[in-house]
Design goal:
Residues 362-438 form the ACT domain. The protein is α/β, with parallel strands linked by helices. It folds into 2 domains: 49-357, Rossmann fold, CATH 3.40.50; 359-436, Alpha-Beta Plaits (2-Layer Sandwich). 43% of the residues lie in helices and 17% in strands. It has helices spanning 6-15, 36-46, 61-64, 82-91, 95-100, 109-120, 135-143, 155-169, 180-196, 212-224, 240-247, 272-281, 290-304, 310-320, 343-356, 373-383, 416-429; strands at residues 55-57, 67-72, 102-104, 125-129, 147-150, 172-173, 202-206, 229-235, 284-288, 331-336, 360-368, 387-394, 404-412, 434-435. The strands form 3 sheets. A 6-stranded mixed beta sheet has the order 1-2-10-7-8-9, sandwiched between helices. A 4-stranded parallel beta sheet has the order 5-4-3-6, with helices on both faces. β3 (102-104), α6 (109-120) and β4 form a beta-alpha-beta unit. The longest helix is centred in the middle third of the chain and has 17 residues, at 180-196.
């Protein structure tokens, strides 16, 4: 049965004028109309290969004054929503191409999804990575079943080598692009959220360089209910999507940060399909600070036991930062799309987030180097219920009077109010107490 609606007309208008790209070597048909039936068919096709992840009511709801439901896509096998688009893409390849194999050149969530699902489908898969790629990411791709080749010092070197291998050996070179097949697979998230949460008012997605998830899911949600607000969130450091929407064509933000903390959020560019769909169907795109993303990661870890990366946390960051006051009292779903953060980065992020959230603070003060003075300081900290994380004493390079000691102390507090109470108590007893600003 063909379903025709105003939203399908929007999709047709958005894509009908886009020419076929000839610069891509990966997929033959990229720019046909994305229909609701395509997304429904993709959902049926990939149902046995990806998780139908839960969309659960969050304990954070009361804190932010709305009913928040978290779509936990980080629970996919490779920790990313990209599996949906990749599996639909791979199963749509001709049999002869599946026998020859595929090749990708990146260390992103996309490459891990390709490695896993190509191996599951018995498709030969090769991943080309720069030599400076983290050993953990190389190990993960190999464990997922890919043949990993380290080549070049930059992503561009790896891509050129991958293209050369694809030409010489008949492999299909895959890039993360906005083909109808790939977007339809990503759009299945919108179908699941709509089914799992009745009476939705809004759904929040990560945006940025690769906005395929936002565009594909918006196509599904707007077809099912045009009144559901679809919102994209990107980083203030590189608002690529907002700049591209304003310009009317994909742009490349020169300030894009390649730090692994940001992952795919800082991708340099996406295709015209995604941009056109976003412009037609997405209600709002907002930008958040890095600090808001870190605190969002901390909230999810504490309240939901959810370990996500920047791309996974950026949707909730818009609520943490108060960027969407119109959603107060509404029913809101937030897509946590990725949970692939290296352990050393996770440790740094949580430590920094605790400081930003006024939960860890540092101060220094000068006391007499006499028996009992240090114990008096510790008594004050104990009375104020501050947990001492680290304490150091400096005697040699103290610039104050003789026979004194500078104490540098790092403590953990409950929240901003508790920190202020501790600060007042210390200043009352030690007026020269100096606090280290964040």
């Amino acid at each position: 049965m063909k379903i025709v609606s105003r939203n399908e007309e929007l999709l047709r208008d958005a894509l009908s004028c886009i020419p076929q790209s000839s610069s891509r070597t990966s997929l033959a048909s990229c720019n046909k109309l994305i229909r609701f039936e395509d997304i429904s068919a993709a959902a049926f096709k990939i149902q046995c290969g990806v998780q139908k992840t839960p969309c659960m009511y969050s304990r954070l709801s009361k804190q932010y004054g709305m009913d928040i439901f978290l779509k936990k896509e980080f629970l996919q096998y490779t920790g990313s929503v990209k599996e949906r688009g990749v599996l639909h893409l791979l199963t749509s390849l001709p049999q002869d191409q599946q026998r020859k194999g595929v090749i990708v050149a990146s260390d992103s969530n996309f490459s891990m999804a390709v490695a896993h699902h190509a191996s599951e489908l018995r498709i030969p898969v090769f991943v080309i990575m720069p030599t400076n790629t983290s050993p953990a990411r190389v190990k993960t791709c190999r464990e997922l079943g890919a043949t990993v080749i380290s080549y070049g010092t930059t992503a561009k070197d790896s891509q050129m080598h991958a293209r050369r291998l694809s030409r010489d050996n008949g492999y299909l070179y895959l890039e993360e692009e906005d083909s109808a097949v790939y977007l339809s697979g990503l759009g299945t998230v919108g179908l699941e959220v709509y089914e799992q949460v009745p009476k939705l008012d809004a759904v929040i997605f990560p945006a940025g360089g690769h906005c395929g998830l936002l565009a594909g899911a918006a196509a599904a949600l707007k077809h099912l209910n045009p009144h559901i607000a679809v919102i994209g969130v990107e980083s203030e450091s590189f608002p690529v999507l907002q700049q591209s929407l304003k310009a009317g064509h994909p742009t490349e933000d020169q300030a894009c940060n390649n730090h692994h903390f940001y992952g795919d959020v800082s991708g340099v560019c996406f295709g015209s399909n995604s941009l056109q769909l976003t412009g037609k169907l997405v209600d709002k795109v907002v930008a958040v600070r890095e600090e808001d993303i870190l605190i969002s990661m901390l909230r999810l870890l504490e309240y939901e036991r959810a370990t996500v990366d920047a791309e996974g946390a950026i949707g909730l960051a818009a609520l943490v930062a108060g960027k969407l006051p119109e959603l107060k009292g509404k029913r809101v779903a937030v897509v946590l799309c990725s949970g692939n953060l290296e352990l050393h980065l996770l440790q740094q992020c949580i430590a920094r987030a605790l400081t930003l959230d006024n939960r860890v603070c540092r101060f220094s003060l000068v006391i007499s180097d006499c028996p009992g003075d240090m114990s008096k300081l510790l008594e004050i900290l104990a009375r104020e219920e501050a947990r001492v994380l680290d304490i150091k004493q400096e005697r040699t390079f103290v610039t104050s009077e003789l026979f004194t000691v500078e104490v540098i102390c790092t403590v953990e507090t409950r929240d901003k109010i508790h920190t202020a109470q501790l600060r007042n108590a210390l200043l009352e007893r030690y007026p020269t107490t100096a606090w280290t600003e964040r």
